[in-house]
Amino acid sequence: MSERRAYPSDLSDARWALVEARLTAWRQARTDAGVGGRVAAHDLREILNAILYVNRTGIAWRYLPHDLPPHQTVYAYFAAWTKEGIFTELNYH
């Protein structure tokens, strides 16, 4: 993936360090269980950055900038993390 300019809503390295292990473990557990049926193609930090961008700007999912992961992918992670209480665990509610 090419480097992109940061958005004001992007996670700092320090904040990413606080949540990286939990999100990586979540994705690995789903992969091990065979959920989704695909190999992960997008960086978890970029997915979370995209969710935070939507939250901060109030835009519709479809209007995510093209340098972030596809809106369908971002929304699928958002929906799964919301349903499974990940945001509550991470204090992103």
Automatic annotation (TrEMBL):
Insertion element IS402-like domain residues are 11-90
Q: Which InterPro entries match?
A: IS402-like_dom
PANTHER family, per the entry = PHP DOMAIN PROTEIN (PTHR30007), TRANSPOSASE (PTHR30007:SF0)
Query: What's the protein name?
Result: Insertion element IS402-like domain-containing protein
